[in-house]
Design goal:
Keywords: Membrane, Transmembrane, Transmembrane helix. It is built from eight helices and no strands. The protein is mostly helical. It has one domain. α2 packs antiparallel against α4, α2 runs antiparallel to α8 and α6 packs antiparallel against α8. The relative contact order is 0.16.
């Protein structure tokens, strides 16, 4: 078991497309969260549902810290090159852009193509990356970390 973990760590990292996609999306959601904390009105407009009252901006800050956490939770897994753990965390997070897409669809209607595309494409990229994370194969012989 320990050997498999070391092999997994050895072969998954900066040379892997799934590693970089995971890192970019983690940093991206951290940025979005920080923007929501610092500029909640701007964040809400970017999300696709503007606040109807400036007092609602506190909800942007609440959303922001959750976004920051969503990105930060992946960073230790990336640093330690824990592909399978990152795959599970990343895959469970797909629910967020899917629900965001549905919120935009039912709040703004099908005509808000810009925001529907942002959330929809994010979900599709995450689905594709999850597939890569779970089905990564090493080109080097002797890598059995992906078999279980």
């Amino acid at each position: 078991m320990e050997t498999q973990v070391k092999q997994q760590q050895h072969y998954w990292g900066m040379r892997s497309v799934s590693y970089w996609i995971t890192l970019v999306l983690a940093l991206g959601i951290i940025f979005i969260g920080v923007r929501f904390i610092l500029q909640p009105v701007v964040g809400a407009i970017g999300y696709g549902v503007a606040f109807s009252d400036e007092q609602d901006a506190v909800y942007g800050k609440i959303k922001g810290i959750r976004d920051v956490f969503s990105g930060i939770v992946l960073l230790p897994l990336l640093i330690m090159r824990m592909r399978k753990a990152a795959a599970w965390v990343f895959t469970t997070a797909i629910v967020v852009p899917v629900v965001d897409f549905l919120i935009i669809r039912f709040t703004n209607g099908a005509g808000d193509l810009e925001h529907l595309l942002v959330h929809g494409v994010t979900a599709l990229v995450m689905i594709a990356n999850s597939f890569l994370l779970f089905h990564m194969r090493s080109s080097l012989k002797g890598d059995h970390a992906h078999r279980k």
